[in-house]
Amino acid sequence: MSEKIYVGVDIGGTAIKVGICNENGDLLQTYEGPTETDKGTDAILNNIAAYVRHIVSESPFQWEQVEGVGIGIAGFLDIPNGIMKFAPNLGLRNVPVRDRVQEALGKPVFINNDANVAALGEAWAGAGKGVSDCVCYTLGTGVGGGIIIDGKIVQGFAGMAGELGHMAIVPDLEAIQCGCGKMGCLETVSSATGIIKMAKDAVERGDRTSLTAVENIMAKDVFDAAKAGDEVAARIVNRAAFYLGKSMATVAIVLNPQRFIIGGGVSKAGDFLFDQIRDVFRKFTPDLIQEGVEIVPAQLGNNAGIVGAAGLVLRS
Amino acid sequence: MSEKIYVGVDIGGTAIKVGICNENGDLLQTYEGPTETDKGTDAILNNIAAYVRHIVSESPFQWEQVEGVGIGIAGFLDIPNGIMKFAPNLGLRNVPVRDRVQEALGKPVFINNDANVAALGEAWAGAGKGVSDCVCYTLGTGVGGGIIIDGKIVQGFAGMAGELGHMAIVPDLEAIQCGCGKMGCLETVSSATGIIKMAKDAVERGDRTSLTAVENIMAKDVFDAAKAGDEVAARIVNRAAFYLGKSMATVAIVLNPQRFIIGGGVSKAGDFLFDQIRDVFRKFTPDLIQEGVEIVPAQLGNNAGIVGAAGLVLRS
C-alpha cells in the first residue's frame, strides 16, 4: 500500500475536474465539482482543495500516498512563482494559486497553463507514451500548442513557448489578419474558426458547393462535404491540412521531435485530414529529419488536462 | 587547489584544438596539434588523448582536477552511444570515439556535434551567459544552428534538432533549390554562399551595381557595397536579413527563447546587418513573445567550439 499517487486538477470556468493517477499516468479515479467563479477567489481556491481531499477520501488510497498535486489553468501565469496574473474566465488577478493550495493541502503543488498541461498529459500517458520529445497541436476555436522535450514542458522565457497557432505560415499574398494582430497565422486557416470562415467566404462568393444549403456551417459540415466529394470543401480542408503540415515541417527542423500529436475537435476528422497533413509534412521535411517521425491523433480527449496536471508532479 | 577544471576538444580536419575551462566557462589555456587524419583512426584518437594530457601537464593544474573531457566533432554522430557513424573530413566510420578516449584518459568523456557544441559555448560563457534559453545561428558557407533550453543542447529524436539553415522560409515563387534537395531553405539566401549567388546573379542580369567591377565576389564585398550606398547590394543584404528575421520570429513562436545569438563570418557585418534582422523580427513576432528578447552577435569566435566542448561536461 505504499504506492504513490498523483492528483491532477483541471480548472475550467464552470467546473473543476480532479483525478488520481498512478506513476504510469493511468487515470484511476475522477471527480468533478462546480468552480463557483461568481463567489470569488477564496471560494475557487477552497473548492480546489476540497475536491482534492474529497476524491482521495473516496478512493482506496490514503492521504499519505499523495505525492503531490498539479493544476492546469487558463490565463497568464507567472509559472516560476506559481502566481495567476490574470485569468479572464475565472476573474483571478495576481493570485498566488500554487502557494495557497499548497498551504491548504500540505502537499507539493505545481501549476502550469492548460495547453501545456494537456500536451504533457498526451506525452506522458497518451499518444506520446514512451516518447521523450513530442509536439502537440490542439485544433479547436484556435490552434493551441505544447512542446515536450526530454519529457518536460518547454516553457520559454516569458512562458510563451508553443504558441503554434501564431506561426506566420500563410504567405503574404493570401494572408489575413489574426486575432493576435499579426498576419497569416496558422490558426487563421487551420482552426475550426478558420475553416468555417473559408467556407462562409466560398458560399458568399457564390462558389458551387453543397455548403450553400447548410444554415450555420460548422467545421464538421466542411469535412463531411469534402468526404462526400464537394470540391470546394475539399479545397478548404486541403488548405487547412497544407499549412498544418508545413508548420510541422518547420517545427521538425527546429526540434526534430519524434512525434506530432493532434487533438481538439477538428482532429476528429480522422485519417481524411491526417493523411493530407502527413503528405505535406513528408514533402517539406528533409529526409533525415522525417525518418521515424509520426503524426498521430491525441488519445486522452478531455482527460488530457487532468492527467497532464498530475504529470506535473513527476515532470517539473 | 581543489578547483575543478573542464577540458574541451575541438576536432577539425587539420588541427585538434584543446582548452581548459573553469566552472564559469573562462578559457584559461589552449593548445593545438595536428589531427593527422592521413594516419587513420588510431592516430587521431591517440592525438586527442595526448593533447589533453599535454595541456594539463603544462598548466598549473593537476590531472586529478580534471572533472571530464568534452569533444566537439563534425559528422553523423550516434550521441547516446558516443559513436561517430561517419565523419567525411576525418575518414572515421563507426568509431566509438567517446569510449575509446574515456579508456585512454580514465576520465568521463562527452561528445556532440560541432554546431551544437559551439552553441553551447556561446550560451554557457559567451553572448548567452546567464540566459537559460538561447538559439544560435552560424552564418558561414551554410547556415548552422544550435538550440539551448534550460542550459542544455536540444538534440532531437535523430540528433537533428537545430538545423535552422534548412527551414523552408522563402516562398515558393522565389524559392531556389538547396543543397539538401528541398526548396526555399534559409541558407539559400542568408549564408555567405547565398549572398554571393544573389550578387553574381545580379551582375549576370546586368543590374547597375558596383559589384560588376569585383572579380571574385565575396559576402564582405556585398556588405561593403551596400554600406557605400549600392542599391542592388543593399537589396541583397536586406533579403538575407529579412529571411533571418522571419525565421527567428518562427523560432520565437515555437520556443520563446530569451536570446538569439548570431555568429559566423557573415555576422561580422555588424549592426548594419543586425538592425535589419531586428526590424523584421519585431514586425513578425507577437508582442508578448518579443518582449525582452534580444538578437546579439556571438562573442567567442573560433573558441566557441573548445569552450562548448568543455561545457558538455557540466551541461550533459
Automatic annotation (TrEMBL), chains A, B:
Its EC number is 2.7.1.2. Gene3D superfamilies: 3.30.420.40. The keyword Kinase applies. InterPro entries: ATPase_NBD (IPR043129), ROK (IPR000600), ROK_cs (IPR049874), ROK_glcA (IPR004654). Keywords: ATP-binding, Kinase, Nucleotide-binding, Transferase. The keyword Protease does not apply. It comes from the Bacteria. Transmembrane segments: none annotated. Belongs to the ROK (NagC/XylR) family. PANTHER family: BIFUNCTIONAL UDP-N-ACETYLGLUCOSAMINE 2-EPIMERASE_N-ACETYLMANNOSAMINE KINASE, ROK (REPRESSOR, ORF, KINASE) FAMILY. This is Glucokinase. The lineage of its organism: Bacteria, Bacillati, Bacillota, Bacilli, Bacillales.
